[in-house]
Design goal:
This protein has about 400 residues and is of the alpha/beta class. The chain has 15 helices and 13 strands. The strands form 2 sheets. Strands 3-2-1-4-5-6-7 form a 7-stranded parallel sheet, sandwiched between helices. The model has no long low-confidence stretch (mean pLDDT about 95).
Length: about 400
Amino acid sequence: MRVVLSTYGSRGDVEPLAGLALQLKASGAEVRVCAPPDAEFAARLAEAGVDLVPVGQAVRSLVSGPPPAPSEIPARAARLVEQFHGAVLAAAEPGGVVVATGLFPAVAGAQAAAEQLGAHFVCVALQPTMLPSPHHRPFEYPMQPYPAGVTDNRELWELNIGAMNALFGEPVNTHRAAVGLPVVDNVRDHVLTDRPWLATDPTLDPWRLPADRDVVQTGAWILPDDRPLSADLEAFLTAGEAPVYVGFGSMPLRDAAGAARVAVDAVRAQGRRVLLGRGWARLAEADGADDCFAVGEVNQQVLFRRVAAVVHHGGAGTTTTAARAGVPQVLVPQIVDQPYWAARVAELGIGVAHDGPTPTTDTLSAALRQALTPETARRAAALAGDIRTDGAASAAKLLLEAAAG
């Protein structure tokens, strides 16, 4: 049985597929992964024993450049639809399985390929704000804002249909017609399907009922990581009290030097040492003092168990890893689903949601002060045992059962 996993997005979109691929291979499936050609993605997939089928432009170079003008969005969307349709069509097989997540046009292209082949198709959300629900609002595309004053979630999701059609209807339907598939009136619901999957942890992110569609929540897809920490990082960790980790993952940040300065000053204000995760923002030590250390690629599953708190952007993967480690969090949300995760962490009492994407030394100090209280630490430690680690295994079992049936 051949299973094609498809995504276009950042590390948080690719690494879960590596976790699923590992489980599928252990069950005897043949797995191919269509994803961006970034070298770090290929490396993570290689650890799962899966080769990358490169599709499209490297994401890191894309997000590090200037944002596209609104007039460029349709052409970029059309390219993604075409690229992923072609890649998945070549990689998948009739009667096989196609699993797609990531940017909407890439999912639409993968779905069109599955339709043509007669392959079983599963649309997967790695965060809930992709899926319509009366219990949360959709994220807002900057070029398609919702009317001021509309707060009802159901009404917002109805408006979301029009926003998705305006952004993606023409590129999706033009390509569908070109390859002999029928056009669709509602591209969002067609691509999501009647039974999408949600690969998030049910403790951190319970899919609440009643809901507008049948959603299969599998648990988060975690790629096990047994890489040791480097010798110099070990030396820093053992040289004093547990530091505060600050990192923004795949967020490029427009003023990385300023963000690093704020982070170092805010952590020092709490009497703590600081560990900066360079990430795509390339955070670096602010002044070279020995209470500050910067680290690149690292095993966060191990590292987070040895820090006092984690300050991060609020991506689904980092939030889950920190929750699993039982460490308090401060979320500084930037885009898309990150405000949702910040709100969830605050609601659960395992951390703090910073108000806005650009902290000052004072605002980050205040958030850290709350996160570093004994009560927050106790709640974070207590919740850690409830985070599931079998999401990828459960998803692999469901996929193979569905294909066999």
